[in-house]
Automatic annotation (TrEMBL):
Membrane topology of the entry: Multi-pass membrane protein
Transmembrane in keyword set: yes
GO terms under cellular component: membrane
Domain Rhodopsin: 25-212
The protein's name in its UniProt record: Rhodopsin domain-containing protein
InterPro entries attached to this UniProt entry: Rhodopsin_dom_fungi, SAT4-like
Biased composition (Low complexity): 218-252
Keywords assigned: Membrane, Transmembrane, Transmembrane helix
């Protein structure tokens, strides 16, 4: 029997473990070496908590049959697979939005943009997080009663698929655009500084990892643009931590490098 559940769990937990490793190193430098934790550190900690919680729900979903052919599952397995995968999307989506706020806090502290640019950066981050949250809440509350989303035999009245798909494309576009912007903006500033080219390249690469996360955040690869029960089949990319989290974690001493 074809079972992709183990592969899903491997992808989710391996990427989460890597993110936790980088975050732990960052927190050690910030808390022990510099003896000071900032707003971005707490945001990253919250994002890590969301990533672990999401993976736990994915693991439970896989134990009920997620990753196997839907037709091979009995009714109870189908319903629990959908229910726990839907639950995984709630904290999982926060790992797409909240780390961007940490990156913005980092860039504002290091690059000292103008007041107007700072307002624009925080506005884009807030809009992105609100859009992603609105999308996942609509996903969960699209049916009346709510239990009908995973209770396959219950009579229900659900939103038209176009509504959820439109929200998914909007939120994905916001997320991808902000990933690319936060990756390219520091490179344009750093390249003008008087420092060795190798340092410039290292900093641009470290702060430009959002280019990697921009692709899976794009509308064409968004799992929430699928129908709910299809999305519940368990795209591991939907819940694993993005490089945005790693970007903020890898720059605990960027201020010293810039100086």
């Amino acid at each position: 029997m074809d079972d992709k559940g183990p592969m899903m769990l491997t992808v989710c937990w391996v990427f989460t473990a890597l993110a936790l490793l980088f975050v732990s190193a960052r927190l050690y430098v910030r808390a022990v070496v510099h003896d000071k934790l900032g707003f971005d550190d707490y945001v990253i900690l919250f994002s890590c908590f969301c990533a672990v919680l999401s993976n736990i729900f994915v693991t439970i979903s896989v134990s009920w049959g997620n990753g196997r052919h839907f037709a091979d599952l009995d009714l109870e397995q189908k319903e629990n697979t959908i229910k726990f995968m839907m639950a995984a999307y709630v904290p999982g989506i926060e790992t797409l939005g909240f780390p961007k706020l940490a990156v913005i806090a980092l860039l504002v502290r290091l690059l000292m943009p103008s007041r107007l640019h700072t307002i624009v950066l925080w506005s884009m981050g807030t809009i992105c997080c609100l859009s992603l949250t609105a999308m996942v809440m609509t996903l969960l509350l699209q049916c009346t009663p709510t239990q009908a989303l995973w209770t396959l035999t219950m009579p229900h009245n659900c939103l038209a698929p176009d509504v959820l798909e439109g929200l998914a494309y909007w939120a994905s576009t916001c997320s991808a655009f902000l990933d690319f912007y936060l990756a390219i903006y520091p490179a344009t500033v750093l390249w003008k500084l008087q420092m060795h080219t190798k340092k410039k390249l290292a900093l641009c690469c470290a702060l430009g990892m959002g280019l990697i996360s921009g692709a899976p955040a794009s509308p064409s690869s968004n799992p929430w643009s699928k129908k709910p029960k299809a999305a519940a089949s368990g795209d591991p990319g939907a819940t694993r931590p993005t490089p945005t989290m790693t970007t903020t974690s890898t720059m605990p001493k960027a201020q010293e490098i810039l100086v």
